[in-house]
Structure formats: C-alpha cells, structure tokens
Design goal:
By secondary structure, the chain is mostly helical. The protein has helices spanning about 1-5, 15-30, 35-50, 65-75. It starts with a helix and ends with a helix.
C-alpha cells in the first residue's frame, strides 16, 4: 500500500512500484501469461541489487525501461 499511495515522486520517479504491483495482479488473475511472479521477483531483485535488469544478454533495462515495459503489459 505504501508504494501505491506514495505521493513523493522523488522516491519512485517512474512509478515502477505501481507498475510492478499492477503486473503482479495481472499475473495472479491470469490476465497475462507471458510474465510470472518469479520473473517479477527477479526483475525487482536485479533492479534493487544491481540497478538494472537484463532481459536478454547484453541488454540492460533501468527503472524507467522496466516501468515502460510493464506499462505496456497492463490490461
């Protein structure tokens, strides 16, 4: 709930938290099947730990890139 109700844009400039929650809910409700809970956890882990997520070898997605990708998957 803190992620969804946070009004401090400096903490999450790209609304990544909200997009991750939306993607999680879409996965759990089976509205999308190309992502899994495990993949979402991996994305968050890598962003938090390394500052980027690697969807394919040699490609780095930063918070903005992941947020944009997840936004396109929202139903």
């Amino acid at each position: 709930m803190q992620v969804l109700t946070c009004n401090d844009a400096s903490l999450d400039r790209h609304n990544l938290g909200a997009h991750l929650v939306a993607a999680y809910l879409n996965v759990k409700s089976q509205k999308i099947s190309f992502l899994t809970v495990e993949r979402l956890k991996s994305i968050w882990h890598d962003l938090y730990t390394y500052g980027y997520y690697t969807p394919v070898a040699g490609t780095r997605w930063y918070a903005k890139d992941v947020a944009e990708y997840l936004q396109r998957t929202e139903t």
